[in-house]
């Protein structure tokens, strides 16, 4: 997307939002839960980005995703902090590429704590690849109309004189 002088960019205040300041292993540990809990907000954001093709129009939807994730992590901190940190530490230190396999026991403890205290069940492994229909209240944007260019060179009038060809016929094959 090119930027011109007429392009309106959002201000710093519009873009400023409290961030989810967590490490990679912490985000990976809670990914299944956050993905399920914040599914509607995330789908709304992605739909807005795809439909409008302009990220500036989806700032509020992006803030809603960040707010949902932040709220989830605050709830986890209040109720399941020790279980969560054990799981994060296991993911971080058990393998160089943070595999889930060595940490199934701490994962089960964390999942049980989240289910018991927050009521969020861990999404099954095949949940996210499944097809989900997202219903939104936002109006669908008008489809972009194709660009119509004026005729570059006006055609010759039908009655224009056509002199005979200088070097033979006008067609490759003559009958």
From TrEMBL:
Q: What is its main location?
A: mitochondrion
Q: Which intervals carry biased composition (Basic and acidic residues)?
A: 136-145
**According to its UniProt record, where is this protein located?**
Mitochondrion inner membrane
Q: Where do the segments described as Disordered lie?
A: 136-162
Q: Which UniProt keywords apply?
A: Disulfide bond, Electron transport, Membrane, Mitochondrion, Mitochondrion inner membrane, Repeat, Respiratory chain, Transport
Q: Which GO terms describe its cellular component?
A: mitochondrial inner membrane
The record's Gene Ontology biological-process terms are: mitochondrial electron transport, NADH to ubiquinone
Q: Which family does it belong to?
A: Belongs to the complex I NDUFA8 subunit family.
Q: Know the name of this protein? A: NADH dehydrogenase [ubiquinone] 1 alpha subcomplex subunit 8
Organism equals Phyllotreta striolata (Striped flea beetle)
């Amino acid at each position: 997307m090119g930027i011109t002088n007429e392009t309106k960019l959002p201000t710093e205040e519009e873009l400023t939002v409290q961030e989810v300041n967590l490490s990679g292993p912490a985000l990976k540990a809670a990914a299944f839960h956050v993905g399920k809990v914040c599914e509607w907000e995330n789908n709304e954001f992605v739909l807005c980005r795809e439909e409008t093709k302009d990220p500036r129009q989806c700032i509020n939807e992006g803030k809603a995703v960040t707010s949902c994730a932040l709220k989830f992590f605050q709830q986890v901190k209040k109720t399941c902090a020790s279980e969560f940190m054990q799981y994060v530490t296991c993911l971080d230190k058990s393998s160089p590429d943070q595999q889930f396999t060595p940490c199934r026991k701490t994962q089960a403890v964390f999942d049980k704590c989240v289910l018991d205290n927050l009521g969020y069940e861990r999404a099954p492994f095949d949940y996210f690849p499944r097809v989900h229909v997202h219903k939104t209240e936002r109006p669908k944007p008008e489809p972009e109309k194709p660009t119509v260019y004026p005729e570059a060179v006006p055609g010759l009038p039908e009655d224009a004189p056509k002199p005979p060809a200088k070097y033979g016929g006008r067609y490759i094959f003559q009958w």
